[in-house]
TrEMBL record:
It comes from the Bacteria. This is Uncharacterized protein. It comes from Brevundimonas denitrificans. Keywords: Membrane, Transmembrane, Transmembrane helix. The chain crosses the membrane at residues 29-47, 54-72, 78-98, 110-127.
Amino acid sequence: MTAFVALYLVTGLAALATAWLKGGHPERLGVVIWLAGWALALLVNDLRFGDLRWAVALLDLAAFAAYLWLALRYDRWWPLGVSACLLLSIAMHAAVLLTPEITPLAEASAQLGFGMLGVLIQAAGAFERWLAGEAPVSASAVWGRRQRAT
């Protein structure tokens, strides 16, 4: 594992944990979508059509649609940013299909860069929610338990 991949994994997990703990329902749904994409991509990463990882490209397309739905469903800015990162990732898949000179290392570097930007945008969305003074879902769940106990 290269240092860039390790940085992506550590940064990604920290950003997703921040979004889960400090975010609301849209942020948590975004974390679930991202983690599901990671898990499924590990399973289908080796399915190729030439140099194109077609199953991963379909997963990126599905994630793009899910984040676009989040952006239209909730009043949040960050799903549009994540959608843009996923659109760039889909464009990279298309570039691999259309340009045989792109090496697998170049594709992996681009995909990791877009992925890191995507998870950082998700964390920024949770941070913005915290700056706005909105309580995270985790705090309301604890408050609800305390309130029922009394």
